[in-house]
Amino acid sequence: MSVAKKEYKRVTVKSIQDMKNNGEKISMLTAYDYTMARIVDGAGVDVILVGDSASNVMAGHETTLPITLDQMIYHASAVVRGIDRALVVVDLPFGSYQSDPKEALRSAIRIMKESGAHAVKLEGGKEIKDSIKRILHAGIPVMGHLGLTPQSIYKFGTYTVRAKEDEEAEKLKADAKMLERSGCFAIVLEKIPAHLAKEVAESVSIPVIGIGAGPGVDGQVLVLHDLLGMTHEFNPRFLRRYMHLYEEMTGAIGQYVKDVKSKDFPNEEESY
User: Fold this and answer.
1) What mean pLDDT is reported for the chain?
2) Which of 19, 32, 45, 151 allows an S-S link to 24, with CB 3.0 to 4.6 Å?
3) Which SS3 state, helix, strand or coil, does residue 196 take?
């Protein structure tokens, strides 16, 4: 028997828990600016992640490591001003929470106060347990992130699938349970075997959102620029491109250049 989909005027951490409980999949996308946030929110996406992937797609860095807390707050503030419905989650950037739980709390408080976001996301398991607890004790919702954790790319040395071997898979399952016990409201699983992701999603009561983790989880997240085909060099197996904007935008801008050069633009109707 199917359950009628509930309409949420505002999505909260409770809303996405309800979605898991009711068997409704959770949609999540990144956004980094006001204009894109308006579009994503208006399209009905449940959760907007202001990801540290802004370091790659907005600033052109090779990794997520260079982006700063101030820059994350800047992007998050713009996104929050653009939404009416979605839950906005912001990545704590590399170096803002790993070394000291007190620093982690200060970073999370700055994001919440200065951007108006609704939650933060941290990468890692038991090694950041104290930071997670300190943030949660302050009343700030926390989303966990396990599997391929891009802030640790220099430790991994590659963006290949994680937790294929038993030892790492067992650690991931234990970390997921720890995140649930600590009070995280959801977990992102990135680039792990689909059977493992499904097992984790069924073993915890909180929502599990996948990226490259198969269909057996409670929701999916993609980077908006990848989904729209604005980036064209990045082609992982898990990515489905819903548009090919790189080609379309290049063609449109190229036509504008030709029209300006040929004096076709502006014409009489486009002039005052």
Assistant:
1) 95
2) 19
3) helix
